[in-house]
């Protein structure tokens, strides 16, 4: 199993230094989405006191020419703090700071989808939109080979691995447990985890989160997972189809509801929202992975618990549909629905914004209304 050289360094020696007093100062790690729309970057600064609110945090900057976000001749980009979390790696009073990125002219960077998402969420705050996202991922060695798989072959076929127990079924549980506890410490709204259908594939769930909080908490959960895997010397992949052939892909199923959907008789509003979604399928496909649907085309084949990327479908308890209504919701006539189309590497800001635009703002057509000429 190929692990990184850093994983071989003595953690006990490092711990001697991590236990040294900080003299009343705080380390704040600023985190942002880079120019790929998938990668995360981070750097740390010292603060004189523990920040209690976003207003306590200074703006910062970085070299965008080294993160695929600007040219070298005009490379300064601004980091705008937006959400604070406890740091599970350095521990209290240190912080993780999720940031938006602005260009030299103070306009959002191309992969800063948070700013527009926040504006859209503000329009519907009185409807209290809740989201829950199911983030699937695959653990790989640094050579790109799935963790625990035979070096020159494949494990046994899918069947025993989903929610499996035992060394021959659960590949990498230590990473999953470390990530779960780190998220709880940080204040991320993580609500569960399980082994998935393909060996070395896992899932964690974040939510319910209201509005912009969904994107903030999922991105921070992803960052923490990257850092945990770094400590173990392995790599996390959010690729929607990391292994071709008869193996399940990885998605980010998104559960959605409004206050009205959650109340008595809310099934009517759920059905109305699904009808709106059925008329805007291609718009959502483009919003549901960072390459405008190209990544998801490898996953949404109509096999392996997916729908066909070219067709919209909906059904009760149907995991082969675009939209699934849970059986309990069908029985109780209220609750939420699950959009099974988003890919594992989706931007949650794009996904949640698209759902609001179509289901609550009543937009039609294949372009967001603000962008129409």
From TrEMBL:
Its cofactor is Mg(2+); Mn(2+). GO terms for molecular function: ATP binding; glutamine synthetase activity; metal ion binding. It catalyses: L-glutamate + NH4(+) + ATP = L-glutamine + ADP + phosphate + H(+). SUPFAM superfamilies: Glutamine synthetase, N-terminal domain, Glutamine synthetase/guanido kinase. Keywords: ATP-binding, Cytoplasm, Ligase, Magnesium, Manganese, Metal-binding, Mitochondrion, Nucleotide-binding. The keyword ATP-binding applies. InterPro entries: Gln_synt_N, Gln_synt_N_sf, Gln_synth/guanido_kin_cat_dom, Gln_synth_cat_dom, Gln_synth_gly_rich_site, Gln_synth_N_conserv_site, Glutamine_Synthetase. Its EC number is 6.3.1.2. It is an enzyme of class 6 (ligase). It is found in: Cytoplasm; Mitochondrion. Pfam families: Gln-synt_C, Gln-synt_N. GO terms for cellular component: mitochondrion. This is Glutamine synthetase. Belongs to the glutamine synthetase family. It comes from Astyanax mexicanus (Blind cave fish). Residues 26-106 form the GS beta-grasp domain. One of its GO terms (biological process) is glutamine biosynthetic process. Residues 113-373 form the GS catalytic domain.
